[in-house]
Design a protein that fits this description.
mainly alpha
Amino acid sequence: MDILWDAHVVAVRGLVRRTLLAVADVDDVVQGVFVTAWRRSTGLVDDPGSPGARAWLLAVATGHVQNANRAEQRRRAALRRFVAEVSVRDPGVTATPEVAVPETVGDPLSTLRAADQTLLRLWSSGMSTAELAVELSVSEAAVRQRLSRARKQLATALLAATKGGDGS
């Protein structure tokens, strides 16, 4: 497997770096490609330096990039919907979805506790509060309370990031 890595990591990393929306995820996607190769290494181990192995790895990398890009687009759309919802609820909030989540803001989720990040990611993927309660082994009321708190903290982080990002 080390031979496969040495022979093709530069090509795989280059493809991933050029096509991935979230640059911070490049190493994770590259690692995922080689984990897939390790799990399905039947024909690759025989001749890891072959052009066929490289083509297969690049095809797998393309699939991993597409999945990661779809996830990133869902995350960005969820953040925009959330900011729009906060703007409607609180007329004093002047942020719009286009302004609140510029590409340069970074990841406002990283300002939250790990448990709150997980909760918001699961919720933004479409899970209901009942499903979240089962997944997290807590009551549905606890999920609603934690979700409310996490969404408020995320709104605060988003607003702080946009105010800091436009020079005000």
